[in-house]
Amino acid sequence: LVNRDESVVNENANKDSRVFSTQRDLTAGAVAKAIGLKMLPPAVANAHLRGDIHWHDLDYTPFMAETNCCLIDFDYMLNHGFSIGNAEVEPAHSIQVAVTQMTQIIANVASSQYGGCSSDRTDQVLAPFAEKNYQKHLREFGSVIDDPAKLEALAVKQTKKDIYDALQTLEYQVNTLYSTQGQTPFVTVGFGLGTSWIEREIQKDILKIRILGLGKERRTAIFPKLVFTLKRGLNLTPEDPNYD
């Protein structure tokens, strides 16, 4: 590590070894590997050293008592509140706050384990918070607009902007976070099963933002990994209502 051996500093493409926290993680990982090999049964340790097998994440396990990957229950935490450190976090009341809370949860979970974090049915989880935005806009604009059609159109337009801005925030925050492992959290976002106009808008914006890319050079984001669910009768064939 000190001599910048490429087999060490470039071992993980998701870890920038020039960053101090990553250097600490790589140093700790070297120690954990040495101790971990002694904890394994001799036959397993020798097989790993010979290259007959590969003990994945030896720099964390079996030495560290950490979990690998997990599916985070964002739905419960965003709706009921949660605790991080000394802070008691209240339930979110808008999609912007919900997404910011998601990234804080991701940062803390990623620093408590060595694998990936997943969010399932993200479009359906976030939709109720975007609905709160929509209802708020109806109330606010309703005080100055009498025409129901114009009121509806303006509330929808503003809610769509809120959704896009929130999801763009998610993309940027995930890609600028560093966990205690010295790397960007390995995040997977699942979506695609929602059918309401808000859920469909969330689906479209997740894809739009990924296609647009990050920064002036429009680089494709590394994370979150996007998993779009296909379901027969919903979005799989041209006859399905969500095929578009």
Question: Which secondary-structure class do the elements indicate?
Answer: alpha/beta
Rg on CA atoms, Å: 22 Å
**What's the mean pLDDT score?**
91
State the shape.
elongated
Taking strands numbered 1, 2, ... along the chain, how are they ordered across the largest sheet? 1-4-5-6
Number of helices: 8
Taken together, the total number of domains comes to 2
Residue windows where pLDDT falls under 50 for at least 5 positions = none
Q: Give a count of the beta strands, DSSP E runs of length 2 or more.
A: 6
Strand content: 5-15%
| Portion in helices | 40-55%
Task: Outline the structure in words.
- The protein is an alpha/beta fold.
- The protein has two domains: 1-65, no CATH class; 67-244, no CATH class.
- The chain contains eight helices and six strands.
- Helix 5 (95-110) packs antiparallel against helix 6 (122-142).
- The radius of gyration is 22 Å and the shape is elongated.
Sequence-ordered SSE layout with sheet pairings:
Blueprint: H1 6-9, H2 20-39, H3 42-50, E1 70-71, H4 74-80, E2 82-84, E3 87-89, H5 95-110, E4 117-119, H6 122-142, H7 148-176, E5 187-191, H8 197-212, E6 225-228
Parallel strand pairs: 1-4, 4-5, 5-6
Antiparallel strand pairs: 2-3
Helix pairs in contact: 5-6, 5-7, 6-7, 6-8, 7-8
